[in-house]
Design a protein that fits this description.
The protein is mainly β. The protein folds into two domains: 56 residues, no CATH class; 174 residues, Jelly Rolls. It contains two helices and 18 strands. α1 runs antiparallel to α2.
């Protein structure tokens, strides 16, 4: 059986001869790979708000948000820059510490190869898994004196799957200070940003903690996994018959 599997470096179609069970395995693997990379969406955003101004928040700026009845997996963060100075900045999510960003970072840094540009919204990619019904801070590490946009009159969009999450958070102000050292100060404006990712189907409550770690929750199988397992079974049966 002849099957097309790709194009080589010379632009020529490559053909290989596979037995039927090998073909089933190839398509199962492709289905599994496709099923595990989908589903991200904008969970919370206020980017449609009126832009009232900007501030550098030397050296860093932060704004709080509140998760809803389900946990959130954040895969990227969009940040609006009112005045960009052509530098590289990064974004992190931090635990709340009495109304200001704490020193505990959740997940790793969200980064982008793009330089800040005036009036631009830059997408920062990373990963952070957040508990349900919890206050967090989105903090921007500003290393180039760019000025992040802010708004007093927010238009908040919350994806239905977040079940009560709010980008306005618990506190009526954003903050400026130093991510590494603390020492945050309130600001009456709110930063303009969006959180993108997946709302976890199984809620993770702050009370479901074991020694400071989230309790294990059931994880649904990817849609392509049964097909992949079935293909491996066919391969095993075919090999056993040849013996």
């Amino acid at each position: 059986m002849w099957v097309v599997i790709g194009i080589n470096k010379l632009g020529l179609t490559v053909f290989h001869h596979f037995k039927p069970f090998s073909v089933a395995l190839v398509f199962a693997v492709l289905s599994f790979a496709g099923a595990t990379g989908a589903g991200a969406t904008t969970l919370l955003t206020n980017l449609t708000s009126q832009v009232d101004g900007s501030y550098g928040g030397y050296p860093d700026s932060a704004d709080d948000f509140l998760t809803g009845a389900v946990g959130l997996t954040i895969e990227s963060i969009d940040v609006y820059w009112e005045l960009g100075r052509g530098g590289i900045n990064r974004v992190g999510i931090f635990a709340d510490d009495g109304g200001h960003p704490g020193l505990t970072q959740v997940g790793g840094w969200f980064t982008s190869a793009e330089t800040t540009t005036s009036g631009a919204t830059i997408n920062y990619e990373g990963y952070a898994k957040l508990l349900a019904n919890t206050v967090y801070w989105m903090a921007v590490e500003i290393s180039d004196r760019s000025r992040i946009g802010y708004s007093f009159n927010q238009v908040v969009t919350s994806h239905a799957s977040t079940l009560g999450a709010d980008i306005n958070g618990k506190f009526p102000a954003s903050a400026w200070g130093d991510i590494a050292l603390g020492g945050w100060y309130d600001d009456p404006a709110n930063l303009l940003y969006a959180l993108n990712g997946i709302a976890d189907p199984a809620p993770v409550q702050p009370g479901n903690m074991v020694d400071g770690a989230a309790a294990l929750e059931p994880v649904p199988l990817p849609a392509g996994l049964p097909l992949l397992l079935a293909a491996f079974g066919v391969v095993g049966i075919a090999r056993a018959r040849r013996r």
